[in-house]
């Protein structure tokens, strides 16, 4: 299936096609953006980043995000891990598939045990977005989400995401607005990293990547389904959730008795939500991910107040990585724990925790504007 030509011609709002030199998608439907030290590719399906090349310490360009070679596979992949896509209109979990606004209770679809995950089965990460603007260094995708098409969320929402690249940097900006009534809105870029691009010959797990989050001193306690219980805990130095007191390898706590089931029943490692300090300089890096093996480091700057980290416990070992990754002659399977998803966002399930004071950042009335902005800067260690 090629979803490009018909949708593409209908959806590009004239400008891109009218300009000679404006980029066209390749045969697989990918748009390519390039700047010094970086090359990124995107498809309209779920506004997905498919490939991201940056240079390692030895000068080798590596494709450091998860994805598929076959762009037609994204829509039909039964596992659908939301690879580098925009889930919406309300990301992550909604406890018990229920929330209320102004004393009216709304029911969302329970698609993750007793809870809703990524807005249920008509989520934005399963839709073809429109391409509304494109140049060699920037692309804008847009989506109109009709009332109740994200099941249980009423009122139309218009949204767009702009990805751009500049020297060593990937910048992401998202906007959304409710067109008629109060509705939950919370977005993220659900990016999965593997800074060795699976090319470290002896180890494809994420445990030897190093993470540093100097502003992340609080973490949500979660239940067996990875839903926040409501308690936000201070993180002591060297605790399993401590990435603030010093940079730690992601596997540093693997010997701890609570490493198993740390991210819900049957889940080891991390699938949690860290809150950043309220008073911080939002222009400074809040998270650094690095790998000694490739020498690549990635710094996140974001206007968001929290981050979700997931260390890919649920990978079944059967999905393959891309031909741009790995080592010639070896198999291509992504192991359990083979990646980390990093999702800057607001507090998970904040619509059900008024005591957290997040309602003003998660519920939007008619004409109220939601904005999300982050950038990743790449370098070497
Ligand atoms: C975009 O890149 C293509 C291929 O490198 C080039 O031919 C074209 O002139 C560029 N367009 C602009 C507007 O810079
Ligand atoms: C790409 O994926 C689609 C959907 O699963 C499939 O029909 C097609 O055969 C695949 N193409 C290749 C080259 O594997
Ligand atoms: C969970 O949601 C159901 C409706 O789906 C509701 O009847 C029930 O009271 C809710 N339970 C809790 C504990 O909120
Ligand atoms: C919601 O219900 C409470 C308790 O009955 C009431 O005090 C409050 O005014 C109601 N809020 C709205 C927006 O209707
Ligand atoms: C998103 O929607 C698709 C299509 O309906 C569905 O298959 C998928 O399970 C949904 N994603 C989640 C996380 O529920
Ligand atoms: C793309 O634009 C067309 C034409 O305006 C519209 O009908 C369609 O719903 C849009 N698609 C999305 C995903 O918003
Ligand atoms: C929203 O969609 C769900 C599922 O289709 C349906 O059960 C519910 O009645 C709808 N709500 C409204 C207010 O239309
Ligand atoms: C990769 O490294 C991790 C952390 O040291 C270790 O637990 C795992 O067994 C290693 N995997 C392989 C295949 O060597
Ligand atoms: C990888 O991580 C494990 C567990 O944290 C550690 O014991 C080991 O020394 C690390 N290996 C390398 C090569 O850094």
UniProtKB/TrEMBL annotation:
GO terms for molecular function: aldose 1-epimerase activity; carbohydrate binding. The lineage of its organism: Eukaryota, Fungi, Dikarya, Ascomycota, Pezizomycotina. Keywords: Carbohydrate metabolism, Isomerase, Signal. PANTHER family: ALDOSE 1-EPIMERASE, ALDOSE-1-EPIMERASE. It holds the Pfam family Aldose_epim. Residues 1-18 form the signal peptide. GO terms for biological process: galactose catabolic process via UDP-galactose, Leloir pathway; glucose metabolic process. Belongs to the aldose epimerase family. This is Galactose mutarotase-like protein.
């Amino acid at each position: 299936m090629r979803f490009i030509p018909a949708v593409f011609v209908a959806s590009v709002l004239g400008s891109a096609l009218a300009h000679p030199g404006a980029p066209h998608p390749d045969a697989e439907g990918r748009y390519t953006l390039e700047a010094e030290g970086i090359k990124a590719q995107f498809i309209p399906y779920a506004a997905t980043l498919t490939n991201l090349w940056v240079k390692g310490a030895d000068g080798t360009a590596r494709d450091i995000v998860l994805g598929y070679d076959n762009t037609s596979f994204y829509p039909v992949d039964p596992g659908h891990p939301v690879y580098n896509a925009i889930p919406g209109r309300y990301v992550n979990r909604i406890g018990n598939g229920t929330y209320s606004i102004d004393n009216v209770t709304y029911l969302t679809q329970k698609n993750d045990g007793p809870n809703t995950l990524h807005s249920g089965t008509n989520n934005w990460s399963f839709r073809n977005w429109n391409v509304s603007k494109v140049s060699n260094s920037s692309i804008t995708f847009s989506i109109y989400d009709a009332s109740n098409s994200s099941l249980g969320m009423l009122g139309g929402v218009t949204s767009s995401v702009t990805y751009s690249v500049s020297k060593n940097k990937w910048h992401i900006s998202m906007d959304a607005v409710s067109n008629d009534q109060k509705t939950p809105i919370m977005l993220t870029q659900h990016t999965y990293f593997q800074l060795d691009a699976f090319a470290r010959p002896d180890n494809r797990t994420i445990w030897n990547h190093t993470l540093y989050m100097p502003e992340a001193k609080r973490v949500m306690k979660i239940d067996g389904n990875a839903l926040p219980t409501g308690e936000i805990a201070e993180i002591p130095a060297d605790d399993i959730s401590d990435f603030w007191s010093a940079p730690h390898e992601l596997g540093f706590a693997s010997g701890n008795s609570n490493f198993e089931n740390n991210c819900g029943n049957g889940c080891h490692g991390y699938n949690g939500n860290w809150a950043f300090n309220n008073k911080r300089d939002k222009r400074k890096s809040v998270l650094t991910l690095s790998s000694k093996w490739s020498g690549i480091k990635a710094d996140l700057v974001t206007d968001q107040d929290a981050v979700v980290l997931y260390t890919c416990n649920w990978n079944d070992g059967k999905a393959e990585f891309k031909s741009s990754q790995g080592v010639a002659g070896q198999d291509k399977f992504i192991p359990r724990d083979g990646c980390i998803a990093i999702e800057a966002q607001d507090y998970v399930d904040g619509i059900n925790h008024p005591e957290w004071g997040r309602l003003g950042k998660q519920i939007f009335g008619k004409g109220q504007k939601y904005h999300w902005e982050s950038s990743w800067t790449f370098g070497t260690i």
